[in-house]
Amino acid sequence: MSEQRGTIIGVDLGGTKMLVGAVDGQGKVEHVMRDLTHAEEGAEAVIDRLAALCRRVREALGPGRPVAAVSVGVPGGVDIVAGVVDKAPNLGWVDVPLAAELEKRLGARVFLDNDVRVAVLGEHAHGVGRGTKTMVGVWVGTGIGGGVIIDGKLHQGARGVAGEIGHSMVDPRGPKCKCGNRGCIEALASRTSIERDLRVAIADGLKSSALKRIKKKGREQLTSGIIDRLLSDEDPAMMKVFARAQGALGRFTANLINTLDPEVVVFGGGIAERLGERFVAPIREVAHAHLLSKRDLDRVRVVATQLGEVAPIVGAAHLARERLARAGATTATTTSG
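-> structure tokens emitted (337 positions)
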């Protein structure tokens, strides 16, 4: 079995949790394991915990299944050549040489990229985008991230930072975003902004059981599960705020389609995983209403994630296979030359 067809350990490293699984050459995920990140303990402790989880997955495979590489999706900026996490605010990391540190602990080749970009790559290779040439992914969570597939390949951009679609400005008079600008789609429709607007709506007198549910869960944060419950209960404040967020995402999606004319726009992240078509249908309707060309709308699918939470793991593994294949081709060319 060639190296790039072997088993890859894919990793989704988040600010709250880490998810690790073994991925075979067909994109099938096995032995998924998770742990809390505990980013507050510092980079060394997080890397130790991540390495231990990778070892557990490797051991679960048994001796007959060698691991070709480990590939990690990181929530932040990554120097993919040097294997360094430039800046990951959710982890509190700056210039952390994650690839070298994991290689030292695991004795395996390690690759890195942004977590949302690899999730989009996973959906393209083994999910809703399989077989397409152009696709855009929009991941809605604490923030909003994305990725773009052009000519069947993940578009990295001239500086390797393509896909920061969360900071596309939709309303220049809108709320201030963490990036410093106003009216970014992240500031209008992320889970964080939905919670902000929900609290404002409640303070303005709209009825809601949201705060009671948040406190019952024991955490001061609006989760996708609570959003689901509130929408099912037709909670007045949540219905209003959520519809407004979906409207913003719909107009933003129209911009993406007008610009790139992709075959698929896929929505991922906790809300899309939880609500599926209930989340995407209103976004699609608004997007269609704002398209310049309304011809052949069935050729642009606006859909929810198919792979769900394992999309980053699958995508990270696919990325590793591509890089191993390129490295093998370079070695073969050099040897034959």
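Residues 3-114 form a domain with the Nucleotidyltransferase; domain 5 fold (CATH 3.30.420.40).
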